[in-house]
């Protein structure tokens, strides 16, 4: 009897070269069955290369990659029938409807008993079923792409940057669909530039940069292990308060537009000291909050590089 694989995906010391260029450099990770796994990294980090090797589309230069226990270089047919793929920059036929698109892809996959209307409903496109692809917004197109990835009822679903370029609302709607897949027991392999997306959706995160792994774990673990500071935000602060905090040896960041200051502190004790000093100095502020850093901050700390433009967390954050 064949032993059932414990992990959906196992990647061991994977390397990929394009000629002399080293795109993926000895990376290893495992994806548990039923989890949402996010591979994070800036442009050119090697995400698509890695994903497409697991999908059997590209060949590894070296290393071992298994999907549901099967070697990706030797069991391509068996693997393809167990996976669903939303490629990066997905596009479909402009002038055919959502329903016709689903019917076509079902035939293409040789899947006979596909519940097309069920899949269309799963991605919340029922009222768009008769609309042509070209007329859909970016978010709806991506949701159709996810429905296509599900026509063969795959155990593992790959979504390569499913929300890049979408507005915040469309992005949230795609997130809901992804959470629905997890609820159905699918393993979801996600690549993204967006830290908040990974923080919200992923059970496990692997961050890669320039082809190499730089951090791995649950979002909470990554924050816990790498973020050894707190961010104190004070709103509507008097100018005097800023001087008081600076005199204490902290380096507050000031946003003059909304009279907000942010202070990076090591301990909750520092927060108490700052608040006392402001009060003793006769200065005031309207409100405050204290936050742990988010994954974006962790990424910046680890790499010194922003994942994508304009995404470095809150304005003026450390
Ligand atoms: N077929 C190819 N031939 C040569 N170089 C390639 C090929 N595919 C990718 N590359 C290069 O390998 C590196 C990694 O590319 P890859 O597409 O895997 O990155 P990525 O993390 O998916 O980036 P993005 O966030 O832009 O999608 C890049 O420098 C890219 O230009
Ligand atoms: Mg890519």
What is the spatial order of strands in the main beta sheet?
Answer: 6-7-8-3-9-10
Number of helices: 11
* Name of the level-1 CATH class of the largest domain: Alpha Beta
Quantity of strands, as a count: 14
Overall tally of structural domains: 2
Low-confidence runs of at least 5 consecutive residues:
307-318
The value of Rg in angstroms is: 23 Å
Distance between the termini: 55 Å
Which compounds are bound in this model? adenosine-5'-triphosphate, magnesium ion
Mean pLDDT: 90
Gross geometry? globular
Q: The biggest beta sheet, please?
A: 6 strands, mixed
CATH-defined topology of the largest domain: Rossmann fold
Helix and strand content put the structural class at: alpha/beta
Instruction: Assess the beta-strand content as a share of residues.
Output: 25-35%
CATH architecture descriptor of the largest domain: 3-Layer(aba) Sandwich
Quick one: CATH superfamily of the largest domain?
A: P-loop containing nucleotide triphosphate hydrolases
| Helix content percent band | 25-40%
Order of helices and strands: EEEHEEHEHHHEHEHEEHEHEEHEH
Walkthrough of the structure:
- The protein is α/β, with parallel strands linked by helices.
- The protein folds into 2 domains: 7-224, Rossmann fold, CATH 3.40.50.300; 228-291, ACT domain (Alpha-Beta Plaits, 2-Layer Sandwich), CATH 3.30.70.260.
- It has helices spanning 47-54, 76-80, 98-108, 116-122, 138-149, 168-183, 195-201, 219-226, 239-247, 268-280, 295-303; strands at 7-18, 21-32, 36-40, 62-67, 70-71, 83-86, 156-160, 187-192, 204-209, 212-217, 230-235, 253-255, 260-265, 287-291.
- The strands form 3 sheets. A 6-stranded mixed sheet has the order 6-7-8-3-9-10, sandwiched between helices. A 4-stranded antiparallel sheet has the order 2-1-4-5. Strands 12-13-11-14 form a 4-stranded antiparallel sheet.
- The protein starts with 6 loop residues before the first strand and ends in a 15-residue tail after the last helix.
- The relative contact order is 0.14.
- The model is unreliable at 307-318 (pLDDT under 50).
- Adenosine-5'-triphosphate binds next to strand 2 and helix 1.
- Magnesium ion binds at residues 47-48, 88, 160.
């Amino acid at each position: 009897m064949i032993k059932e694989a414990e992990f959906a995906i196992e990647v061991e010391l994977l390397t990929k070269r394009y000629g002399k260029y080293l795109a993926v450099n000895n990376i290893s990770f495992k994806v548990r069955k039923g989890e949402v796994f996010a591979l994070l990294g800036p442009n050119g980090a090697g995400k698509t290369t890695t994903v497409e090797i697991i999908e059997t589309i590209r060949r590894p230069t070296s290393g071992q990659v298994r999907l549901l226990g099967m070697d990706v270089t030797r069991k391509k047919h068996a693997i393809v029938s167990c996976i669903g793929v939303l490629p990066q920059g997905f596009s479909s036929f402009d002038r055919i409807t959502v329903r016709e698109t689903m019917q076509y892809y079902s035939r293409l996959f040789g899947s006979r008993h596909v519940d097309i209307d069920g899949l269309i409903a799963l991605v919340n496109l029922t009222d768009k079923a008769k609309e042509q692809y070209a007329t859909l917004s970016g978010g709806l197109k991506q949701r159709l792409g996810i429905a296509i990835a599900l026509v063969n009822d795959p155990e593992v679903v790959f979504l390569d940057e499913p929300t890049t370029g979408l507005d915040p609302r469309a992005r949230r709607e795609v997130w809901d669909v992804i959470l629905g897949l997890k609820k159905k027991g699918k393993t979801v392999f996600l690549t993204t530039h967006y830290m908040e997306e990974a923080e919200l959706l992923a059970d496990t995160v692997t961050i890669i940069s320039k082809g190499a792994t730089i951090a791995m774990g649950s979002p909470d673990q990554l924050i816990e292990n790498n973020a050894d500071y707190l961010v104190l935000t004070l709103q509507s602060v008097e100018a005097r308060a800023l001087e008081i905090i600076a005199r204490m040896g902290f380096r507050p960041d000031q946003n003059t537009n909304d009279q907000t200051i942010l202070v990076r502190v090591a301990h909750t004790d520092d927060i108490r000291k700052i608040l006392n000093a402001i009060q003793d100095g006769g200065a005031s502020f309207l409100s405050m909050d204290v936050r742990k850093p988010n994954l974006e901050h962790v990424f910046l700390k680890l790499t010194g590089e922003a994942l994508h433009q304009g995404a470095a967390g809150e304005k003026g954050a450390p």
